[in-house]
Amino acid sequence: MLTNPTLDKLHELRLTxxxxxxxxxxxxxxxxxxxxxxxxxxLVDREHTERHNRRLVTRLRKAKLRLCATVEDIDYRHPRxxxxxxxxxxxxxxxxxxxHNLILTGPTGAGKTYLACALGHKACREGFTTQYHRAPRLFxxxxxxxxxxxxxxxxxxxxxxxxxxxxxxxxxxxTDEQRRDLFEIVEDRYECRSTLIAAQMPLEHWHEAIGDPTxxxxxxxxxxxxxxxxxxxxxxxxxQKSKKLD
Length: 246
Fold this sequence. Notes:
Structural class: alpha/beta
Helix content: 55-70%
CATH class of the largest domain: Alpha Beta
CATH architecture of the largest domain: 3-Layer(aba) Sandwich
Order of helices and strands: HHHHHEHEHHEHEHHEH
């Protein structure tokens, strides 16, 4: 059997992993002692691994995480009220499978964005689609989308994402348009998808930050009742790092 036509067909079928593994087997005598099933299994394993890695790269690219953060690199030494056992439990991503939410609050510099991006990165690794947005920028994007006709498409994409991360939430009081957009987002995702919100403002002040009492009740009811909550505290980690450099 000619090998070049086989390689050409693997390339044509875009089986790049099998192609690379087959070339390795042809060029090395290390595989001669293996059975056909064993050698074929190695080809399939390589193709599976490469496809998994390509899908992961695509999910991370589309997630647009603000920071390159991983759960393995989370710093538990800094005294900020971070429960390691809880974080490790969240890193398993069962809360996403169960369509629960996660709320991170704490002062500036407490590491909310890093934790959010680390959990977003882990979600991508577990096969979940993820989107990261700073809330102020998302509201601007939604306003522009209404003007140019992209609003339904953008809202549909937000609704279908397995994990939606909203960072810098409630930095200012919401406008009427922003309140209604937020309600549509949480309504579309309620008990269907997971939302992670990171905010400097304590949870007890969110109602007044939303503004309209009726919409605030509806929004918070959909966000909070099935949410895991982490309230960080302590001095800014940025200050701690700055002291170490001095």
